[in-house]
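re: ur question from yesterday

yeah so i grabbed the chain u mentioned. its 123 aa long if i counted rite. heres the sequnce exactly as i have it in my notes:
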Amino acid sequence: MSAQRGLSPEHKIVIYYVLMLLTCLLGFTFLIALWGSYRALNHTQDVWLRSHQLWIWRGCMAFLAIILLSALFLLPLIWLPITQGIGLYSAITAASISGLATLWLIYRGVRGLIYWFKGKVIY
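ran it thru and got these structure tokens back, copy pasting raw so excuse formatting
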């Protein structure tokens, strides 16, 4: 009976970074990166790999928190149409916050990949 080998932790980190970057197109892939990096965080003893897993986990958690915060700005749209003043401003604010959060997640993903390819610890 042969033992099957899964992906190495180094390959999983690259996959999680790619999932972070795919969030711009698909919108939900950061949740997979969040779950995977948190799950692998306690199984890693290497400081280099652990720093990247923490970087991914913190970035995805902050992105989730910011997106939930921007969703609060959409609550007035339940009572007010978007054509009225406060409805329009809350929709613009929610879209702006979500866009900035997405750009921030891209920054975290690209910077993490750069440090990973260099073989450096990231914090």
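noticed a couple things. The mean pLDDT is 87. also The helical segments are 9-26, 29-41, 47-72, 85-118.
anyway ttyl
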